[in-house]
Design a protein that fits this description.
The protein is of the alpha/beta class. Helix content is about 60%, strand content about 10%.
Length: about 750
């Protein structure tokens, strides 16, 4: 047994080692390419150092994040941060007062300061516990940023497919190298097909390997002149930062307000992008592992990672979702697998940098085009087609569908606007524009009508089952009761709109019940408006009831504190909407002066089972029935008990609840039969019945009913008809109530889906 465990452990170690090694081989070329892209404005002479520093920075950042954080996220430069750094380097050069080659190391120092400041800002976001706020970045904004960055990456690396250097710009007079184009397209095609086929070898690694072999084969047959160059061997500088740390050149540039503004905006953008990537990656990994981590702690860890990368001259880093998922899912028990990945990346840089030197630039370009394309969301072209199909059917669709159509169109417009801002204005400006759209979308979502559904007492009833006469009265006069199901936060705008709606209802409704089950937040202004509205109704002799907030609910406490001791009499609360509806129905029946015999004991003739019976038939039926008394809280029967008797309350209410809980399924008023289904079906009881008050009831046993059917078939037939009519009324009421609960459940699921999307 011990030997088997040792062998299993050894197999796990070998599997993890293979996974880490292939991951390092896959992402080392990506990080090297991002280093070339980021430092391209400094010239080709800086290329080998740019690649070496990018690889070193990625390894150091990954190690720091693994040690300080949860150890599951793999950091690398990434397209967004590399392209952002390219823009910063190009913007800093005019302020250096020296040619690009001479100012290279001074620019690198300024970039390192910007990366370090971005890391400190990320740490600050974590320490201030604003990770939850960052998670609420709207999905259209995130998709627009990712899609725009993907398009920008393709534009920047596409020249490499033609045989030119990474980030060299679109060639105007240089010829297209056919061999390089074939190699690049081969890399792109193999990577794409491998990704769809879910091969065991990472798609990027397979694409690079096949394209490199094609490049070598074409060189052997004499095509070397049209193949383009290889990436080159990454190298680390002999003297860190070129020995210019003490020079005055970068210090003089740092004293310029324009340079400070550039570095400040760069640091802020790095912090925002790194935070979004960190929280998204952490959410996905936690979902795969069915675990949960401290999001703010991860922000601190990855802020430290960027500071560490800046200290060695690397690029800004953020978690790579695909790499992290690949490592974690293949080695879920290795907590610090990212640290091992960092060690493998560093070993590759120090011991075998020439491995990267054989890669064709066009092959790397093809892989980067694949990565850029994978960042572009299909919604950019799928939603317009969907909108057009919905637009052509718009006239035949209900009004809620029109609202969904408008929401979909607005979200797509935001996605496109953010993506275009990335292409036309740059990543930094796009982040600011995305933040503005996030605020607008938040305001827009909270300006919607807070009333999700509206019913009257004629269409939605409480769970209390009443006699046919009283049920008819409630259907006829139930419009005097209004039930409003609310959804979303209540603040000044939504609460004021609700007040206007209630004022309109006040002209024909005597009571308004607010179902607050889906209201999560209430601010002080909204609490004041709700109290004032209840006070206005009170002065007119009417009532507003707040349902679904228990006595200890902080939202209820806020409204009560606004009302104060003097205004407390105005407020009416109910623990459930059903309870509020039952009270409203009782008050309506009392106001209409309908004889409900409340508090009085009925006779058999007053019950619904005896409707249409002659005095002789009543006497025969009464002779077969027994009288029972139950104190308040007594259990008449439990789930699983045999269905041996039908009960008809003469005085007091009988409730039915879910076994083992206090949740009421129904309540039966005096005169109403209950328990008949189990008796007629000869089946066990499916729920638990209890006395809601002191009950006096008649019981018709199974044996007595059998005697009636044998000795007095016409009487038994009339009894069965009355039971069937009663059951039909109950089914109609339950259908209405089920529709209300399905509406509420749909709202809850929609709200949960939206939050998960935002969290991701």
């Amino acid at each position: 047994m011990q030997g088997d465990r040792r062998n299993l452990r050894w197999r796990e170690i070998r599997s993890a080692a293979g996974t880490v090694f292939s991951s390092a081989l896959t992402h080392a070329p990506e990080n090297a390419a991002y280093g070339l892209m980021a430092m391209a404005p400094l010239g080709a002479a800086f290329g080998s150092w740019a690649m070496g520093l990018a690889l070193l920075g990625s390894a150091v950042a990954c190690a720091a994040a693994s040690v300080i954080g949860a150890g599951r996220l793999v950091d690398d430069a990434g397209a967004a941060l590399a392209l952002l750094t390219t823009g910063l380097v190009a913007a800093l050069l005019p302020h250096m007062g020296a040619p690009a080659g001479d100012a290279s190391w001074s620019v690198l120092i300024l970039v390192a300061l910007g990366i370090g400041a971005g890391g400190l800002l990320t740490m600050l976001l974590g320490l201030l516990r604003v990770g939850r706020i960052v998670k609420f970045t709207p999905y259209p904004v995130r998709v627009g940023l990712a899609s725009g960055i993907g398009l920008l990456l393709i534009i920047n690396v596409a020249p490499a497919l033609l045989g030119h250097a990474l980030s060299s710009g679109w060639p105007s007079d240089r010829p297209v190298l056919l061999g390089a184009l074939l190699v690049g397209l081969c890399s792109l095609a193999v990577t794409t097909l491998a990704g769809r086929a879910s091969t065991r070898v990472p798609p990027v690694l397979l694409g690079l390997a096949v394209a490199t072999l094609l490049h070598w084969a074409m060189a052997q047959i004499g095509w070397a002149g049209v193949l383009g160059s290889t990436v080159g061997v990454p190298a680390l500088p002999d003297h860190w930062f070129g020995g210019v740390v003490a020079s005055m050149e970068w210090r003089a540039a740092l004293a310029q307000p324009a340079v400070l503004a550039l570095l400040g905006s760069y640091a802020l953008t790095v912090a925002v992008v790194a935070s979004l990537d960190t929280l998204l990656a952490a959410s996905i990994i936690d979902g795969r592992l069915r675990a949960s981590r401290n999001a703010n702690g991860e922000l601190v860890a990855h802020g430290v990672a960027n500071v560490a990368s800046a200290l060695v001259g690397g690029l800004p880093a953020s978690p790579a979702v695909h790499t992290s998922v690949s490592l974690v899912m293949r080695s879920p028990r290795q907590r610090h697998i990212a640290l091992v990945h960092a060690a493998a990346l560093l070993l590759l840089l120090l011991a075998a940098p020439a491995v990267l030197g054989v890669l064709p630039v066009s092959a790397v370009g093809g892989v980067l085009v694949f990565l850029g394309a994978s960042m572009i969301s299909p919604t950019l072209w799928q939603i317009p087609a969907m909108l057009w199909r919905q637009f052509t059917r718009r006239a035949s669709q209900p009004r809620p569908a029109h609202r969904r159509w408008a929401d979909l169109a607005a979200n797509w417009a935001v996605t496109v606007a953010v993506a275009l801002s990335v292409l036309l204005l740059g990543i930094g400006q796009a982040v600011l524009i995305g933040a503005s759209f996030a605020v607008l979308l938040f305001v827009r979502s909270n300006m919607r009508d807070v009333v999700r559904q509206e019913w009257t007492g004629a269409t939605r009833h409480s769970l209390k089952t009443r006699t046919a006469h009283l049920a008819d009265v409630l259907r006829r006069e139930g419009h005097r009761i209004a039930v409003l199901e609310l959804e979303g936060p209540l603040f000044f705008g939504t609460a004021d709109a609700l007040r206007a709606r209630l004022q309109a209802l006040c002209s024909h409704a005597d009571m308004a019940i607010l179902d607050l089950h889906q209201v999560r937040e209430v601010d002080l202004t909204a609490a004041r408006i709700l109290f004032e509205t209840a006070d206005d109704w009170q002065q007119l002799g009417k009532r507003v009831v707040f349902a679904e907030w228990s006595a200890h609910d902080p939202r209820r406490a806020l409204i009560e504190s606004v009302a104060g001791a003097d205004g407390a009499r105005v407020l009416s609360f109910a623990d459930s909407t059903d309870q509020a509806l039952e009270q409203a129905e009782e008050q309506l029946i009392e106001r209409l002066q309908i004889d409900s015999r409340a508090g009085e004991s009925l006779t058999l003739a007053d019950t619904m089972i005896a409707a249409g019976l002659s005095p002789e038939e009543l006497e025969l039926l009464g002779a077969e029935m027994t009288t029972h008394t139950f104190p308040r809280g007594h259990v008449l029967f439990r789930a699983g008990d045999p269905g041996d008797m039908i009960y008809i309350s003469l005085k007091g209410e009988i409730g039915v609840r879910v076994p083992g809980t206090t949740r009421r399924l129904a309540s039966f008023a005096p005169g109403v039969t209950m328990g008949e289904i189990a008796v007629l079906a000869r089946a066990p009881r499916s729920a638990e019945a209890f006395a809601e008050s002191d009950v006096t009831a008649l019981g018709l046993s199974v044996d007595a009913f059998e005697r009636l059917m044998q000795s007095h078939p016409p009487l038994a037939a009339k009894v069965l008809r009355n039971i069937a009519l009663h059951l039909g009324d109950r089914v109609r009421m339950l259908t209405s109530d089920l529709a209300a609960w399905m509406s509420r459940s749909g709202a809850a699921r929609a709200a949960s889906s939206a939050k998960t999307g935002q969290d991701r």
